[in-house]
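Marked as duplicate of an earlier ticket. Keeping the data here for the record.
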Amino acid sequence: MRVAVCGKSKPLVFLDADGTPSGMYIDIMDELARIGGLDIEYVVFDRKKQAIESLERGEVDAVLGTLESDQTGNPLLASTSEIYSASMCLVAEKGKSDYILRHALTYGYSTAYEVGTSSFVRISQIRPSPILIMSNQDSLYDALRSGEADMVIAVRDCIQYRIREAGLSDAYTTAINYLSSVSYSILLKRSDELRLNTLNTCISSLRSGTEYARIVDKWIIDADLEDAQLRIRNLTYIMAIVFGAALIIVSAFLFFNKRLKQVVAEKTSELKEKVDDLENAYVLRNKLMEHAYAANLVVRQDGSILLMNDVARQMVELPSDREDIPTIEELPVIGELWKKASQAMTQPQLLAVRDGKGVRRTYRYQCHRTSVPDEFVLIVEDVTSEERKKTEILEENKSQALNRIIAGIAHEIKNPLTTIRNYAVLADEEGSDPEFMASFH
């Protein structure tokens, strides 16, 4: 099985020093090959578009790590089940981050994102600044490093991996951690039903075991945990410095009294600027959520709703002019999802429920912590039509397989009946011939 890869999205997939494909997707594909007894040969392409065109021409059998948009509009191609889901985030240089958050709604700034992810983050609806479209995640990182883009909307795992790898964690900041999510799968020809069904079975088997989590943990580092540990260390150093400074101040209070007042005034001014920046950051976040394609809600631990966009209001049939928003447990559908959502979800989950009209619908949901304690973001998508389409394709595949089996049985029965019929006719015509009748024995 010839599998096409575009090795420019580290750590998901990349080329090592020897030019050999490596990364999390390669480990996942190797494990799928082991489960399904497949012989894999990797073919490297510079761009994903070239890989897909090669698949259409039949030069390769599959393309690894494709988005849903890569298959949309092409009835000849079909995607497997999801092999990984990642969050989209907004990253900028720390020197520019304050300016972006303060002037995001009044001044333009250049933004870059990977082709095929625009349907997940509709950043163009928010401001008229220049937009740069890149072919892969490594190009986004290069555009940010070179200054070609003021900010990038990238896969969180990829951009943070590259920043940590280069030792530039102090130079760049993640302004918004969660904008939406993207799902990756394997793209094949729709006519290649055997491989498609085999891979889907292998994916289901892999994700139900422990090996999948081991592979993900090998390549994806919990940046939030590292940041928390760094903040604790920094806080310890600051506390030690403050304690030492306090001793000095006590011993020389009269001498440093005037200087202390000046420091307090400077810190107060800095704090006011940070508060203003935080307010602008909230405005930008709320604007992004309002234009998101999925239902987005900001919820406290006690279930009170701080913010919900129009998509969420339409999902629960809540008028846009109603100000007294009930608690999230009281909302139809979303209330059930909130009860099942884990506050430490790493992957989106699916749940089938019946809406207020008794219609069975399927929803994809995920829940994330924000930078504010006791505050969470719940993202809900109605994927009923997507799941129904998958079911229809599965039933169609079953019907086709059954028809082939019936046709084969009919063929096997027809052959001996034809022979019997021919001998019966000959026996009727040549029954008086002793030599002929002896041939039957």
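See parent ticket for discussion. DSSP finds 13 helices and 17 strands in the chain.
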